[in-house]
TrEMBL record:
Pfam families: HTH_21 (PF13276), rve (PF00665). Involved in the transposition of the insertion sequence. Gene3D superfamilies: Ribonuclease H-like superfamily/Ribonuclease H. This is IS3 family transposase. InterPro entries: HTH-like_dom, Integrase_cat-core, RNaseH-like_sf, RNaseH_sf, Transpos_IS3, Transposase_IS3/IS150/IS904. Residues 129-293 form the Integrase catalytic domain. NCBIfam families: transpos_IS3. The lineage of its organism: Bacteria, Bacillati, Actinomycetota, Actinomycetes, Kitasatosporales. It comes from the Bacteria. It comes from Streptantibioticus ferralitis.
Length: 300
């Protein structure tokens, strides 16, 4: 009503308009209500401009995450940038502007048991946590499709930080692929003696080559049960995150796929992707490693 009165009242630019008193009387609006509305206009304009700027910041953060971040991570990223803004406000603005995070899809696994497989006990028991980096790792293999043929990605993820500390890509998924990822993890992850490596019961992980590598690295092998995705949920969940957030399902070339996977793991995920830690709040995997190393460093 107040906006209508403002548009129809007589002014220098609208000499054929009506008086405010007549419009208010006709519409049944107290003149005090109209004048209060007009007095609050500067504050409304300032709020509108503030929200417009905030929406632009949200769009930049959302685009920078490949469209992956939803409300919690966008809010956390804004707070890290020094923007003290209410979570519900971010939720409202993202809803009103149709900005949303990605939804993960379930994947078809590659697990194939060897005919003469040698299984290991489950040392994790679906407890995908660790108090220190280098105590417990999980690993798995997934398939990537390119127009030049399939690639396979093997990973080793530290359960204390959720950092991908070892990974390898190849056009096959023989045992040497997860062994390469394992050796990378051992070279950069500062693993403890007796560190647990937990996987499914795929033939790559039950192979003599993989078990030999574990012994050489002073690691213990752990495996989930047959056909139970929940027994290796942390590793499988990471692949779901990768495929949801990277946004590509078929690459034109293997070289492009390799470049995208490298950038996602080493630049976007390990160093930039925010993950909620129960003690530290939203921080990246590398920041989590640094915090935990500092917490467990003996005082001089």
């Amino acid at each position: 009503m107040c906006r209508f009165i403002d548009a129809e009242k007589a002014t220098e630019t609208n000499p054929g308009g009506y008086s405010v008193a007549l419009l208010c009387r006709t519409l049944g609006v107290p003149r005090s209500t109209y004048y209060a509305h007009m007095a609050s206009r500067p504050a409304r304009l300032a709020r509108w401009r503030s929200e417009e700027l905030l929406v632009n910041e949200i769009r930049v953060l959302h685009a920078g995450s490949r469209g992956a971040y939803g409300v919690p991570r966008v809010h956390a990223a804004l707070v890290r940038a020094g923007r003290m803004v209410n979570l519900k406000r971010i939720e409202r603005l993202m809803r009103e502007n149709a900005i949303s995070g990605v939804t993960r899809r379930r994947r078809r696994g590659l697990t194939r048991q060897a005919k003469r497989a040698v299984f290991a006990a489950d040392l994790i028991g679906r407890d995908f946590t660790a108090v220190r980096p280098g105590m417990r790792l999980v690993g798995d293999i997934t398939e990537l499709v390119t127009l030049e043929g399939k690639l396979y990605l093997a990973t080793c993820i530290d359960l204390a930080t959720r950092e991908v500390i070892g990974w390898a890509l190849a056009d096959h998924h023989r045992a040497e692929l997860p062994v390469a990822a394992l050796r990378m993890a051992a070279g950069r992850g500062q693993l403890e003696e007796g560190c647990i490596m937990h996987t499914d019961r795929g033939s790559e992980y039950t192979s003599a080559e993989f078990r030999t590598a574990l012994r050489e690295l002073d690691m213990r092998q752990s495996m989930g049960r047959v056909g139970s995705c929940y027994d290796n949920a942390a590793a499988e969940s990471w692949f779901a995150l990768l495929k949801a957030e990277i946004g590509t399902t078929v690459w034109p070339t293997q070289a492009k796929a390799r470049a995208d996977i490298f950038r996602f793991i080493e630049v976007e995920y390990n160093r930039a992707r925010l993950r909620k830690h129960r003690e530290y709040g939203y921080i990246t995997p590398l920041e989590t490693r640094a915090r935990l190393r500092q917490d467990f460093t003996p005082a001089a």
